[in-house]
Amino acid sequence: MTIFEKIIAREIPATIVHEDDLCICFHDISPQAPTHLLMVPKKRIVRVGEAEAEDKETLGHLLLMAQEVARNEGFLESGFRVVINNGSDGGEAVPHLHLHLLARRKMSWPPG
Q1: What is the pTM of this model?
Q2: What is the CATH number of the domain that holds 41?
Q3: CB-count burial class (<10 Å; 0-12, 13-18, 19+) for 64
Q4: Each residue's pLDDT tens digit, 22-38
């Protein structure tokens, strides 16, 4: 069981900012920006590179909820970055698909 599954099951506390039937969004415990949220599907999809056609609704939902959370948390207009890490070279630390929402600081390009 991943740390995210434990948060979803309420076995580990988290500061939750959004939750619905398909996903949960909470503050990262090791923030890389003044606002760093994790948007996690409740269904465990190991990584985006292993998503299947049946995950299409969940994947689209995650992006739409990122927009809603950005609006509700007050950083939609100023801008934010959405990051999905895939595999060890991509920086993946937890084998459960999740979106990083990074906001409230100027982002540079290229990242990392």
Answers
A1: 0.95
A2: 3.30.428.10
A3: exposed
A4: 999 999 999 999 999 99
Q: Which string of b and e fits 31-45 if b means at least 16 CB within 10 Å?
A: eebebbbbbbbeeeb
DSSP H/E element including 97 = none
Domain assignment of residue 50, given as a range: 3-103
**For this structure, is 98 an active site residue?**
yes
Question: Cis bond leading into 13, ω under 30°?
Answer: no
Q: Which residue has the tokens 């959004």?
A: 18
> Which one is catalytic: 36, 96, 98, 100?
98
Q: Residue 17: CB partners within 8 Å, gap ≥ 6?
A: 25, 26, 27, 37, 69, 72, 73
* Tally of domains in the chain: 1
